Amino acid sequence: MKQFAQLFRKVEETNKTNDKVDALVHFFNEADDSDKLWTIALFSHRRPRRTITTSFLREWASEMSGVPTWLFEESYHIVGDLAETISLVLPNPTQKDERNLSDWIEYIQGLREVEEEEKKRAVFYAWKSLNQDERFLFNKLITGGFRIGISQKLMTRALSKHLDKPTNEIAHRLMGNWTPDSTDFQQLLLDDSISSDTSKPYPFYLAYAVEEKIEDLGDPDEWTAEWKWDGIRGQVICRESESFIWSRGEELVTDTFPEIAMMATKLPEGTVIDGEILGYENGSPLSFQALQKRIGRKKVTKKLLKEAPVVLMAYDLLECKGEDIRNQSLEERRLKLAEIVQDLQHPTLVLSESVKFQNWETLAELRKTSRERGAEGFMLKKKASPYLSGRKKGDWWKWKVDPYTIDAVMLYAQRGHGRRSSLYTDFTFAVWNGDRLVTFAKAYSGLTDKEFKEITAFVKNNTIERFGPVSSVKPELVFELAFEGIQESKRHKSGVALRFPRIKRWRRDKPASEANHLEDLKALLP
Questions:
Q1: Could you say which of 361, 378, 400 is where a domain stops?
Q2: Residue 420 DSSP one-character state
Q3: Is the pTM of this model over 0.70?
Q4: Residue 480: which domain range?
């Protein structure tokens, strides 16, 4: 555990990408294969399941530390993280245990079926044997709440250096439905074949947002444009007469969209299509609200299939007749994709049409019609581009319409987590409804650390009431919120729900009385 704790501390204490990669490479060079595998799993969100409830951990930490329960709970609300609170209040370790990361995870997993007293003895033993950093990680692992600020891209770079293999091969190997219980380091990253798992998707190619003038992209004849739809990015796979649907978040969602899975079984053998899963009816995309009814459903009823029909809007072809064709040009891949769609003639497979335009000015005018079409803007792709892994600048760009904005008053604040646990970073916002404020959105991103520190000082000096970790504050600070969409909602007091709300800027120039009204929000409803 000591090696892993040292790695965790190094990557948490720096914001520099190269330093994080170097720390990972050093760890991979020194650790044994089982620890490498579990580190890859943890850093790619494959966490072990929770084996002990947090209520037990809070009770036991209070007992072992001699801190009264009420004081422990108050400390927890201030720190904002249970694992960290426990690691801070416990006395210094009185013994040593040199188990490595994978041994401790096996230890934790072995507690799943045992009685409460045995769990308590095991947890006390661990707490007495580990230092503060190691205890923190043990607590995170035992609650199933481990998270770290390492992207898959950074881990891929580190493994590429460690193994001297191309990053795109590493990225592909890490995809799929594997766990440390179903594979080992050798099978996952070193075996000659990476196609043994018939369900394995490819890493998604992601686009950057257009930030400069659109004309800076050069000759429009070198580019293709497609409408950017608001759905779930996915890969549909047909291999060995089986079909699989993967979301961009590497979640297997085959059962959620049975009509697309059924269509996929009719695709030519060895086909992988990249596209967007969309609510779709009568030849037109539906709002994301319609698709939300399907998200997370393992069992889909006939009624839901009728209420929220979906299609795969096909963007790209990654595998054709069992051959990986990602290195072919977009033009070549699209021709083959069009043939497949045409031959299949299936209602749940729709080809994303290329938008014809002669110059950037024409496309800019078309972009203004995005919202009335139910689109977010355009995807721009170079015709000669291969299909790469991850987010790359140069060949693919998303040119979205400007977001909606609204000025809102902050009413509630909550502390953040990890390195921001001492700052108030999560906020609830309100707009005016007559002479009272009604909450309508939560947001936490978009401000600098300096601004968060200023707001934290304001919250401490202007708290009206406290509800556990949440503080209600004087309604004085105004912020401009940006969001991608708005829809009616019976679950919210305001009657509306926002899509992707975030803080655009702190409106220091506005008093609370000049914030927007609920009628301004409702005027944006489609």
A1: 400
A2: G
A3: yes
A4: 404-522
